[in-house]
Design a protein that fits this description.
Layout lengths: L3 E5 L2 E6 L3 E7 L6 E9 L2 E9 L13 E3 L2 E4 L9 E4 L8 E4 L2 E4 H5 L9 E6 L5
Antiparallel strand pairs: 1-2, 1-11, 3-4, 3-9, 4-5, 5-7, 6-7, 8-11, 9-10
C-alpha cells in the first residue's frame, strides 16, 4: 500500500492512504492562495505541480507558468524530496491537505489541540510504502 505519513516530533500522527496529495495555504503577507501537488516517488515526494492565485512578496511564477481560470500554474523543476517540513503558525490559517477526494486541515489530521500548536509536521512516504 502506498501511503504518506504525517510526523510530529518523531511520532507518526496520521497516515494518508494515497500516492498523491495537494497541500494548500494562504500566503501570510499577500493573502493569496498557493497550492502544491506531490506524488510519492519511491521513498521521496515529487512536486508535480504548483499553483498560485496572484503575485507579489516572493510569489512570482516562473516564466513557463500559464495563467488560466484565475491561477498561475507550472511544473517545478526540482528533484524529489526525502521529506517536506511544514511549519504551523498561530498567525496564519492552517495548511489544508487534499487526498483521495477529501480535504482536511493539517492540525485536524495530526491531532493539534488548537491554532497555537506550532509543531513542525513532516510529510514523507511511509516506510515500506510501495
Amino acid at each position: 500500500m502506498i501511503a504518506v505519513c504525517l510526523i510530529v516530533a518523531g511520532v507518526v500522527r496520521a497516515t494518508l492512504p494515497t500516492e498523491q496529495f495537494t497541500l494548500s495555504w494562504t500566503h501570510s503577507v499577500e493573502k493569496t492562495r498557493w497550492e502544491e501537488t506531490y506524488r510519492v516517488d519511491g521513498d521521496r515526494l515529487a512536486l508535480i505541480e504548483a499553483r498560485i492565485q496572484g503575485m507579489g512578496a516572493g510569489m512570482e511564477p516562473p516564466a513557463d507558468a500559464r495563467f488560466a481560470n484565475g491561477w498561475w500554474t507550472w511544473r517545478p523543476k526540482m528533484p524529489p524530496l526525502p521529506a517536506l517540513d511544514l511549519s504551523r503558525s498561530p498567525y496564519t490559517r492552517d495548511y489544508d491537505i487534499c487526498f483521495a477526494s477529501r480535504c482536511a486541515e493539517l492540525g485536524a489530521l495530526t491531532g493539534a489541540v488548537d491554532a497555537t500548536d506550532t509543531s513542525i509536521v513532516t510529510a514523507k512516504p511511509c516506510p515500506g510504502s510501495r
